[in-house]
Specification:
Elements (H helix, E strand, L loop, with lengths): L4 H6 L5 H18 L6 H10 L3 E2 L4 E2 L4 E2 L5 E3 L4 E2 L4 E3 L4 E3 L4 E2 L4 E3 L2 E2 L8 E2 L3 E3 L4 E2 L4 E2 L4 E2 L4 E2 L4 E2 L7 E4 L4 E6 L5 E2 L8
Parallel strand pairs: 1-4, 2-5, 3-6, 4-7, 5-8, 6-9, 7-12, 8-13, 9-14, 12-15, 13-16, 14-17, 16-18
Antiparallel strand pairs: 10-11, 18-19, 19-20
Length: 193
């Protein structure tokens, strides 16, 4: 079987309104990116102007890259750090008090590799309240990070992360749990063979 690249390129991937929005956002992005670091209210307002749902007291840093603002929801008191990439072809929902640390990548877009024309897919990503996606972590399409969960630095989460679970590695695996008082405990050791 060979890939049908021509069919992929002919496919309509975005509605006309979304295409216009992408063009307008490309012109507005320098206003976002060049804004001084402490102007969080300015960036919240710009994201809202382009259709994002952004709660109170949200900090989005100027070097964060948000692909489609209208596909973004951020709960109050959350933070999106420096150089974060939110590739939100599908809906990306960040709960309240969520931290997305610098250089993390949330990827809500992929292709159906089983088909010759590789159609574009736009599955959502959801990050629950009080969760933390650490530095350089990758969250794949159609992944839910549960409430209070921690996705460790440089981890690759391609499956759902349970609430209050701490995961690390590639692929991300449970390495402990997070309790309400902030203590982290190790999971039970595996049984001997």
């Amino acid at each position: 079987m060979t890939l049908d690249v021509a069919a992929n390129r002919r496919a309509v991937k975005y509605a006309p309104g979304a295409l216009i929005g992408r063009v307008l956002w490309s012109f507005a992005r320098p206003l976002f990116r060049c804004s001084p670091r402490p102007l969080f209210a300015w960036r919240r307002g710009l994201l809202r102007l382009f259709g994002a749902t952004v709660g109170a007291h949200v900090h989005v840093y100027p070097s964060a890259r948000i692909f489609l603002p209208w596909n973004l929801e951020i709960g109050e008191w959350s933070s999106v750090g420096d150089d974060v990439l939110i590739y939100n072809l599908g809906r990306v929902r960040l709960g309240r008090r969520v931290t997305i640390s610098h250089r993390a990548h949330l990827c809500a877009g992929t292709h159906d590799y089983r088909r010759r024309d590789l159609p574009l897919l736009k599955p959502p990503i959801s990050v629950g309240d009080d969760a933390w996606v650490c530095t350089d972590a990758f969250i794949g399409p159609n992944v839910t990070v549960g409430e209070g969960a921690v996705v460790g630095a440089r981890s690759v989460a391609v499956r759902d992360v349970a609430p209050w679970c701490v995961v690390a590695g590639n692929p991300a695996r449970s390495v402990g749990t997070r309790t309400l008082n902030g203590d982290v405990t190790s999971p039970d050791p595996p049984e001997a063979p």
